[in-house]
Amino acid sequence: MRRLLALAALLLTLAGTTALTTASPAFAQETEQAPKTSLYEIERQVMCVTCRTSLSVAGGPQADRQRDLIKSLIAEGKDSEQIKDALVLEYGQAVLALPEDDGFNIAVYLVPVLVVLAALVLAALFLPRWRRHARAVAGAQQGPLEPELNAADARRLDDDLKRYD
To answer: What start and end residues bound the annotated signal peptide (predicted)?
Structure first.
């Protein structure tokens, strides 16, 4: 139980540290100084509106037009959020590769978190039982560590050991 509490405390600490780091003004300044975006980065996040596949694998005239628009926006110095906003204005919400964060689509975000939490709870519940059971089985199977010697065998062993001294 102590290990579970320690693990939970560690996860909360890491989550808090990550949230504080990304929300800090120093982090914002670092991201402003970093390169704005790349075509590859945007292609992975948007869809071709004609064939409904990721723009990174889409081919055809519509995909090429979308890539040209993205390249021109990158040349203007736009960041990835501004480019995605411009694509949504041009082509609608269907251009975004991520599901919206409302309704049934929220399950895309929640299910993995719930599965990990359920696995941690199951491990915390069953691991101590498995360990106790394994110890009990190992203790029951383990015989005496040293065989008992009768007097004649002990005398013979002592004689043999004396020869090697």
So the answer is: 1-28
